Amino acid sequence: MTNELKQLFENNRAWANKITRLDPSFFNKLSKQQNPEYLWIGCSDSRVPANEIVGLLPGELFVHRNVANIVLHTDLNCQSVLQYATDVLRVKHIIVCGHYGCGGVDAAIQDKSHGLIDNWLRHIRDIYHRSSDRFQQIADDEQRVNLLCELNVLQQRANVCHTNIVQAAWERGQPLSVHGWIYSVKDGLLQTLGESIDGLQQIPSAYRIRSGE
Ligand code: CO
User: Fold this and answer.
1) Separation of CA 64 and ligand 1 centre (Å)
2) C-alpha 44 to ligand 1 mean position (Å)
3) pTM of the model
4) Residue 70 to residue 82: CA distance in whole angstroms
5) Tens-place pLDDT, residues 122-170
6) CA–CA distances in Å: residue 80 to residues 63, 84, 176, 192
7) How far is CA 27 from CA 23, 37, 57, 88, in A?
8) Which residues participate in catalysis according to the annotation?
9) How far is the CA of 7 from the centre of ligand 1 (A)?
């Protein structure tokens, strides 16, 4: 193994020792069950480590990350995470967290190809095109990307709420709130975007579906 990779194993050992010193039964308890209250849907960006920025330990945050924190109705990976977190783990909060300066969002509005990922990022280009009026007055590239990062969070938060998974949970009276947050890689701070959504009455009637249960 290369020295670089050996270092990761040394780090791992030191980390496990530190946690065990603080709570000798920590890993034993966690090996029996997980009971997270939160589902985090965030960007794959290495600068946005989910657990770390909200100070949560293993077992406390269920996590799905992909490039530019996109929630698609046909993405079986994301939908399966959402379904398991909602129906089985019964998380109380779903957080869609984007970040300013997102490379995926930036790439989505460039006119050059980045390969396969162009297709994934096209969903962000759709948001950009739909909101083109809002971008007309902004000359600064960084500000344009940051506005699109915010609009993307709001769209993906809406997509979470429009799933039959979340709507069925609300219909059976399960407490579940969906949040849009944005993180700044420049100062390490989170901000909320818009209100939390915690019931069918907050989503447009055109998207409401009855589970038929
Ligand atoms: Co990103």
Assistant:
1) 13
2) 6
3) 0.95
4) 13
5) 999 999 999 999 999 999 999 999 999 999 999 999 999 999 999 999 9
6) 12, 6, 17, 25
7) 9, 18, 11, 22
8) 43, 45, 47, 99, 102
9) 26
